[in-house]
Amino acid sequence: MTLLELSTNARVVSIDNDKINVEGNQLQQQTSFPSQQQLLVRPGKDLSSKEYKVSVVYYRSGYSPNDYPSEIEWDVRVMIENSKAIKCPSIGYQLAGTKAIQAALYLPGVLEKFLTIDESIIIRKCFAAQYSMIDFRNGDYVTKNAVENAITDGTNWVLKPQREGGGNNFYGQELSNFLKLNYDNPILQGMFYMTETMIDNVF
Fold this sequence. Notes:
The protein has helices at 27-30, 71-81, 91-96, 99-106, 117-124, 133-137, 141-152, 172-182, 186-189; strands at residues 2-6, 10-15, 18-23, 31-32, 40-41, 52-53, 56-59, 86-88, 130-132, 157-161, 170-171, 192-196. The chain is α+β, with helices and mostly antiparallel strands.
């Protein structure tokens, strides 16, 4: 199996468990997409070196706009997405995991565009309240009310930026203080989403 592992500064190609580093700026030159949706990678820089069919593409980067500084990175991403290789994650799965999409699905009527009313009711029972700070800026009453409640008491809320991992979140009093100082900052409003904390039922 050939695994193409994408990270920020280097690309690692694992062929039968042997790892070979591929410089990031050489990825496009060393990857081809000839036909039948087969993604091929050539670990060696020599044009005559053997090409391998990529089975799995694993993204260690590619989650931030900073990972796509030029059209080259976008072209490679399109090439990978159009291939038959297993993508971890695929672009659809990656977008579904973003807070912007999750907040949009929480809005009334959005989930119902894709599911029946009965299905939507069942799934919404699993949802935690989630609000985009952009909606707060645009004057949405429900979002405004939630933000004002969190400023008063941040106990039941988490403020998350659109980034991977949880190391950049705000909780509790820290969340309340941050909102008090920045709730009218248009730049920060575009970066953050507020989510109701999920509390397990005790049986």
